[in-house]
From TrEMBL:
Top-level taxonomy: Archaea, Methanobacteriati, Methanobacteriota, Thermococci, Thermococcales
Taxonomic source organism: Thermococcus barossii
Domain HTH arsR-type: 7-90
Gene3D superfamilies named among the record's database cross-references: P-loop containing nucleotide triphosphate hydrolases, Tetratricopeptide repeat domain, Winged helix-like DNA-binding domain superfamily/Winged helix DNA-binding domain
Official protein name in the record: ArsR family transcriptional regulator
GO molecular function: DNA-binding transcription factor activity
Record-linked InterPro entries: ArsR-like_HTH (IPR011991), HTH_ArsR_DNA-bd_dom (IPR001845), P-loop_NTPase (IPR027417), TPR-like_helical_dom_sf (IPR011990), TPR_rpt (IPR019734), WH-like_DNA-bd_sf (IPR036388), WH_DNA-bd_sf (IPR036390)
CDD domains referenced in this protein's UniProt entry, alphabetically: HTH_ARSR (cd00090)
Top-rank lineage group of the source organism: Archaea
């Protein structure tokens, strides 16, 4: 295929384009789903896909779903070859068996002034299967050491506001680019179990033999990340976790290597000095080394200082050095340094350009880089924390203006992560009057945010005081994370303090909360309130919330016909107003479930299959496999045991792979009884043993039914299975309704001996 060589090479030099290609390697995607995974705007992703399609790297196709045309994209080629020939560069694209495309999601810092540290680098590079912690005082060179040892690592820097869930999302994208997809699929399916996430992270890092670097761990405020490090220590075999921290974290000793980083050796320091100041006399260097004791940042500052070393330098080295250097800066350089000092994290060049406002942004920034006052990490720039403190003592910059300007820049980027950062800086600026505007933006554009990043969002909202709109968001987070009583109390507190769309979300969520708390009377009352608000506001979003809650409410009350009508209305609104694809897939699943409860399994299959088409079209892997599980169950009920096994195979393999054990148990149970229905006792016994293994590992109640299925398989083979059945009964004694349901379902295909007396006691 002939391609535009320059355009193709330019496209492949862009990190975001590579991330898109890597994700498409795992299946077809709709632009909206890619945007969610990459934390970018849908318009930006669509534009990139069109460019990649024009270059022949991806292909888009229209499919008909739910009465409308939908465009989805998939990878067209797997390999790009670049041949350097006399007089030309020739690029070819073609299919290949496989490839490995490691993509960094945060650039590894540059190490331009790096010298020495040969022993430490060697220790780090030999630390496969270990968690390595490099700790030491500020400016001692921890980050530079890790960057030199691991130039192709997955790099993640803490700034105090991120949470474990954001780290997990970013790591999942990186591992997906290396061919390990289970972590990303688990997160896409809404998985949040800590133990399962830790297991998937361990498996992904080992399977891909990755190096993961976590910089500035001392800034971490999420204990889950610390627990993850403790879990990985002693369990890693082929991968490596490297950590930089100013303080030694309490992670224990098993599987961990600690490096307490001190100053440079004299010969290493002299090498650094010659890089900065050529021809430096040995006696002058000796005096500098005596003052700095080999501290790299101090060496750089002292060598850049226009003054002479003195007793003052010995007593208060950094303050003296920085004062000397600061005096020599131009007013423009001072202004940029002060601007950078007010931000906790690094800024990308476009942000600096927008905030600084001068035409000479690049030249001023480059001058500060050359002087060692500004550091660069990929496309981002920052100043060392030590220097920030000195700068803030020298002058007090107008931080509020910069915070608000930066927030506007972030909001224009239109991604969930940038929205969170913008919210944080608006609160830092004290602009609490904008909270209502931001909450509406979250509702309209970033619906998944409270569920995807609850800890990060909650941390930011904690600085909003008693603002009712922020409190309402906290209530939504509590609901999404399963704290239903806290959600109820918080949402009831703000219900009468907010209005419009915000009140509608709070009221509809309260209807859901009361359903979860099994208070149907209050759920009905808040469902009616939601309807009244929908009629007043005439907002499609509110009508969708109403019908979503009505479907659940009527289903709980077993008014199945009313639940079915509501579900179809929910589907209609979602399709008409461009609702999220996963919502459409879930509604189709719910419709199938209701038909199943109405004892119309054939109708249920129709909607499950339609949901399957939606899931495949949009790359909704989790919903796709939930649908396989429901189809397995339905075909079991119809007596189509071979089909039940076929669908069950796909569901079981997937849910075990992503360690979603609750779903895996459901799928295994129906596959197991289907094997019994087919008379294949050996295979039924295998599934029963897997269920028992999961039961002992997780304690999921249904998994204990594995003992009962084991007993049935033994009886089927002509052996005595009564001991296994009694073991199952014992483990389910606190769940008598579940025991009865298991016996009833199994009764479709197997009849236990009467002497077991399995009737409900």
């Amino acid at each position: 295929m002939r391609v535009d060589t320059l355009a193709l090479l330019k496209a492949l030099s862009n990190e975001t384009n590579l991330q898109i290609l890597s994700l498409l390697r795992s299946g077809s995607f709709h632009p909206r789903e890619l945007a969610r995974l990459l934390q970018r705007s849908e318009s930006d992703v669509s534009r990139r896909l069109k460019k990649l399609e024009k270059l022949g790297l991806v292909e888009g196709r229209w499919i008909r779903l739910g009465g409308r045309n939908v465009r989805i994209y998939s990878l067209r080629v797997n390999e790009v070859k670049v041949n350097f020939l006399p007089g030309e560069v020739r690029v070819g694209i073609e299919e290949a068996e496989s490839y490995r495309l490691p993509i960094t999601f945060e650039d590894v810092p540059k190490t331009g002034f790096f010298v020495g540290r040969h022993d430490e680098v060697e220790i780090l590079r030999r630390a496969r299967g270990r968690v390595v912690v490099v700790h030491g005082i500020a400016g001692i060179g921890k980050t530079s050491l890790l960057a030199r040892a691991f130039p192709e690592a997955f790099w993640y820097s803490m700034n105090g506001s991120e949470s474990f869930e954001y780290f997990a999302w970013q790591l999942s994208l990186y591992l997906n680019s290396l061919g390990y997809r289970a972590l990303m699929e688990y997160l896409r399916g809404g998985g949040k179990e800590e133990k399962e996430l830790f297991e998937l992270i361990l498996e992904g890092i080992d399977e891909t033999e990755s190096v993961v670097v976590i910089d500035d761990l001392h800034k971490c405020r999420d204990e889950t990340l610390m627990r993850m490090l403790s879990y990985l220590a002693g369990r890693l075999k082929k991968g490596t976790i490297a950590v930089a921290s100013r303080v030694k974290p309490p992670l224990g000793i098993e599987g961990i290597v600690y490096i307490n980083l001190g100053g440079l050796k004299p010969e290493e320091a002299y090498e650094l000095a010659k890089k900065i100041k050529k021809g430096i006399p040995v006696d002058e260097f000796a005096e500098i080394y005596r003052i700095t004791r080999g501290h790299p940042l101090a060496l750089i500052l002292l060598l850049e200082s226009p003054g002479e070393s003195s007793e003052e330098a010995r007593e208060n080295l950094f303050e003296f050095l920085f004062t000397e250097i600061y005096r020599s800066l131009t007013e423009e350089e001072k202004r940029m340094l002060l601007m950078l000092s007010i931000f906790e994290g690094p800024l990308e060049y476009e942000a600096i350009k927008a905030l600084y406002g001068g035409r000479n942004t690049f030249s001023v920034l480059h001058s500060l880089l050359r002087k060692g006052l500004v550091e660069r990490r990929g496309r981002q720039y920052f100043i060392h924390d030590m220097l920030k403190g000195f700068l803030r003592e020298k002058e007090t910059p107008e931080s509020r203006t910069y915070y608000l300007e930066y927030a506007e820049y972030l909001l224009r980027k239109n991604t969930p992560r940038d929205f969170l950062k913008a919210f944080e800086y608006i609160l830092r600026a004290g602009a609490t009057g904008r909270i209502r505007e931001l909450v509406e933006l979250r509702i309209r554009r970033f619906k998944h945010l409270p569920g995807d990043f609850p800890k990060t969002y909650r941390m930011i909202l904690s600085h909003a005081g008693d603002n009712p709109y922020a409190r309402g968001e906290l209530g939504i987070i509590y609901f999404n994370t399963g704290f239903f009583q806290k959600a109820r109390d918080t949402l009831l507190e703000v219900e009468d303090k907010i209005e419009g769309l915000f009140k509608a979300e709070v009221v509809s969520t309260l209807a859901d909360v009361f359903l979860m708390l099994e208070n149907l009377e209050m759920a009905g009352r808040y469902l009616q309130k939601t309807r009244e608000l929908a009629e007043n506001l005439q907002d499609p979003e509110v009508w969708l919330w109403y019908y979503m809650e009505k479907t659940k409410y009527e289903y709980y009350r077993r008014n199945l016909e009313e639940a079915l009508k509501s579900a179809f209305k929910e589907l209609e609104i979602s399709r008409k107003h461009g609702g999220a694809p996963e919502n459409e897939g879930l509604v189709l699943l719910h419709i199938g479930d209701i038909y199943l409860d109405l004892e119309q399994p054939e109708e249920g299959i129709k909607y499950y299959e339609e949901g399957l088409r939606v899931a495949k079209a949009y790359g909704l892997t989790f919903i796709e496999h939930v649908t396989y599980m429901e189809l397995s169950k339905t075909h079991y009920i119809l007596g189509n045991y071979r089909k039940a096994v076929s669908y069950g195979n796909r569901a079981v393999e997937y849910f075990l792979r992503i360690k979603n054990y609750r779903r895996a148990v459901d799928a295994l149970a129906y596959r197991c009884v289907s094997w019994i229905g087919l008379g294949e006792a050996e295979r039924a016994e295998e599934d029963a043993r897997e269920l028992v293994r999961i039961a002992h590992s997780t304690g999921y109640p249904l998994a204990w039914a594995g003992y009962i299925f084991m007993g049935a398989a033994k009886f089927l083979k002509g052996e005595d299975g009564s001991g296994y059945v009694e073991e199952g009964r014992k483990h389910l004694q606190d769940y008598p309704w579940l025991f009865e349901a298991v016996i009833q379902e199994l009764g479709r295909v197997f009849e236990f001996p009467e002497e077991l007396n399995l009737s409900r006691e």
